Amino acid sequence: MVKNVNVARMRYRLEFGLDEPTGKKNPNTGKSIKGFNPHLSRYAGLWTLSANQAITLAGAHIKEAVVFFVRHDLKITSNYKIRKGDEIFIIDNISYDDGLSTDGFDLITCHREVIDHG
Asked: Which residue has the higher pLDDT, 33 or 17?
């Protein structure tokens, strides 16, 4: 998908994981508490969206979209969530590279997870 990206821009360490039981129970309800459990981590960079891309994502009802680029890796799937620091992102789309060359990168479009307790 993307070729010849400056790897010096890959300054973020992203964790890819799932919401899984933590072994703790909610004292009020007795249900098990789920939390983010990282399965793999990769270095990534932030991809700048063009105006046309931003409009396309808005038309798909994806608000506050963030696009990361990572080295081509088929282990990364849309089943995972992404943790960057204290923020959790939900993956909307992954544009995989063809993987034919060593300098391929995948684009991961995601949005910030909003926890609504209302």
From this structure: 17
Contacts for 96-104: CB closer than 8 Å, 24+ residues apart: 96/1, 96/72, 97/1, 97/2, 97/72, 98/1, 99/72, 99/74, 101/3, 103/3, 103/4, 103/5, 104/1, 104/2, 104/3, 104/71, 104/72
Strand partners, 21: 34
pLDDT of residue 8: 80
Mean per-residue pLDDT, 42-46: 93
Dist. CA 48–CA 70, nearest whole Å:
14
The structure's pTM equals 0.81
End-to-end CA distance of the chain: 40
Computed over every residue of the chain, the mean pLDDT equals 84
